[in-house]
Model the fold of this input.
Amino acid sequence: MGLKHQTARLLTAVGMLANALLQPALAAEEIVFKNRQDMTWEKMLPELGADSPVYAILGVDPDTNATTLMIEFPVAMHIPKHTHEKSETHIILGGAHIFEHGGRHFDVKEHGYIYMPGKFEHEAWVPAGSKAVIILEDGWKVDWLDGGPTAKDVGKGTPGR
Done:
C-alpha cells in the first residue's frame, strides 16, 4: 500500500473520529472538550485490579447510541472471540492491536486504523501500554462467544502466547 493511499486512509479515519465526537455536540449545540484529566476512567475488568484495561467514554450519540471511547492497556491482554451488533472502528494511539478473524491476522500498529463491520467474529491481542480510540456504532456492547477476558488472558499480547 502506497504512502498516498495510507495517508488518505488515515485522513478518513481522523474525519470519522471527528464526526463521531462532534455529532452529539452538534445535536446539543455545544462543544465537547476533554483532556485526559477531565475524563472519567473505569476499569473494564475490575476483578483484574491493576491489570484491568481502563476506558473513558468520550461521547454517546443520544439518537443512535454510537459510543466513542478511549481505552488503555497497562498489561498485555488477550480479548477472546466476540462480535458487536454493529460496526467497530479502532484508531491506535500507541502500541498495537492484533485482530484475528477466520485464521487471518490484522496487525494494526501505532497510528493505524481498522474498521470491522457488525457481527464480525474476532479476537484480539494487545501488548502492554497500548492505547486506542474505539467507535462502536451500537454502543459499548460486546457479545462474547465463549466468555469474556479473565485472569488467564492477562500477559498474552500476541497470538500463541
In short: The helical segments are 3-28. Residues 67 and 139 are 5 Å apart (CA to CA). Residues 3-153 form a domain with the Jelly Rolls fold (CATH 2.60.120.10).
